[in-house]
């Protein structure tokens, strides 16, 4: 009787395991959030099919940003003094050896974060900091609260309105210190604040502060003199060190935009109009300058293939950078030329990576070009109404469980 009971239990376990395996299918889903250059419109596209899933009306043309999880996309509408959020509809549940994926319809989330001239957006440690230049105030919200439609805002104030930024660090935050001579100039340092908004320690000097990014456990902030490197967890007070520019870099040039590497810890920054610089803070030669064939328009790192990054240049080419070799190893003619002469905000291409595809907006042609990342070859194009401009890609792959 005992033997038969064990056999039945074993058979039941095998049947259950088979049912669970059959119910779980590998699924990949990618969505593109695309903001128009001129119209107050945000479109959500199925990246694979090229179909428009939703079109949302905004109050002003927006810059768009995704959180670290990809669950939430924010539309920063500077000229309308508001920031609104959207659920991407793609959610992952980590199980260690694999992740489950749940795909639902995208949707606009309730609530907004309002203030005078929102500009800088930073997502870090599950929180989002929105800096309002017209007030010199950062408003911090948790991604979870925003997803619930109840953005509980805490404010971090500075001494004057300025073009600043704040970075959440768990129980602490970093916030810029306005230029003491003229707040209209770029900030001159950063200050650590505790959970109650009180200063911790001294101001870290960072003249001409502009640009930040995170890679691994490091956050970098760009200054006239080099980079501030910030390390810290959710509870510990952040530690700040200074990495000066190398002596062999061109004079009178600095980093003002940074991207953080994924899987490989490094930073990629602009350095003059027609060059980028690779930054490995752990290397004795921390800075490697990469000259480009012509002036730079936009650049991103590849989160899927860590050794690559991409730079679009004004000659209409997408250039692939081999991060390990420190050089441009491939170039692909993709669009008509987009000159960098003229106002900085003119419509020009922007890049996003969606799995094995590199997406490049072509606003003057109402098109998104799709490049096969593995072959580094043009694959197809997606027609989009208006002038597709800022773009973010969210998604990935996981196990999809029926009735999960």
Automatic annotation (TrEMBL):
<keyword id="KW-0732">Signal</keyword>
<dbReference type="InterPro" id="IPR011044">
    <property type="entry name" value="Quino_amine_DH_bsu"/>
</dbReference>
<feature type="signal peptide">
    <location>
        <begin position="1"/>
        <end position="23"/>
    </location>
</feature>
<dbReference type="InterPro" id="IPR011045">
    <property type="entry name" value="N2O_reductase_N"/>
</dbReference>
<protein>
    <submittedName>
        <fullName>Uncharacterized protein</fullName>
    </submittedName>
</protein>
<dbReference type="InterPro" id="IPR047697">
    <property type="entry name" value="AztD-like"/>
</dbReference>
């Amino acid at each position: 009787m005992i033997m038969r009971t064990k056999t039945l239990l074993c058979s039941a376990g095998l049947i259950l395991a088979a049912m669970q395996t059959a119910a779980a299918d590998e699924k990949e889903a990618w969505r593109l959030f695309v903001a128009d250059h001129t119209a107050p419109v945000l479109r959500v596209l199925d990246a694979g099919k090229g179909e428009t899933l939703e079109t949302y009306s905004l109050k002003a043309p927006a810059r768009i940003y995704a959180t670290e999880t990809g669950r939430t996309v924010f539309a920063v509408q500077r000229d309308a003094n508001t920031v609104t959020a959207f659920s991407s509809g793609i959610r992952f549940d980590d199980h260690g050896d694999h992740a489950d994926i749940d795909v639902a319809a995208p949707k606009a989330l309730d609530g907004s974060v309002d203030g005078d001239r929102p500009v800088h957006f930073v997502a870090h440690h599950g929180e989002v900091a929105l800096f309002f230049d017209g007030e010199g105030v950062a408003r911090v919200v948790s991604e979870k609260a925003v997803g619930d439609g109840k953005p509980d805002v805490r404010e971090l104030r500075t001494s004057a309105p300025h073009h600043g930024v704040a970075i959440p660090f768990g129980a602490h935050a970093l916030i810029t210190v306005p230029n003491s001579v003229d707040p209209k100039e770029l900030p001159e340092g950063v200050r650590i604040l505790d959970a109650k908004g009180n200063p911790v320690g001294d101001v870290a000097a960072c003249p001409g502060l502009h640009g930040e990014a995170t890679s691994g456990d490091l956050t970098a902030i760009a200054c006239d003199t080099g980079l501030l490197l910030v390390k810290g967890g959710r509870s510990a007070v952040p530690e700040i060190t200074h990495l000066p520019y190398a002596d062999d870099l061109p004079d009178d040039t600095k980093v003002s935009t940074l991207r953080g590497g994924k899987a490989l810890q490094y930073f990629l920054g602009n350095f003059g109009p027609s060059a980028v610089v690779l930054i490995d803070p752990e290397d004795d030669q921390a800075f490697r300058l990469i000259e480009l064939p012509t002036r730079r328009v936009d650049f991103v790192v590849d989160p899927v293939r860590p050794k690559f990054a991409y730079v679009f240049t004004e000659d209409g080419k997408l250039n692939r950078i081999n991060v390990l070799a420190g050089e441009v190893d491939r170039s692909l003619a993709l669009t008509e030329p987009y000159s960098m002469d003229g106002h900085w905000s003119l419509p020009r291409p922007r890049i996003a990576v969606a799995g094995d595809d590199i997406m490049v907006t072509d606003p003057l042609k109402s098109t998104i070009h799709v490049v096969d990342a593995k072959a580094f070859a043009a694959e197809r194009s997606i027609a989009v109404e208006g002038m597709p401009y800022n773009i973010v890609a969210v998604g990935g792959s996981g196990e999809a469980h029926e009735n999960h």
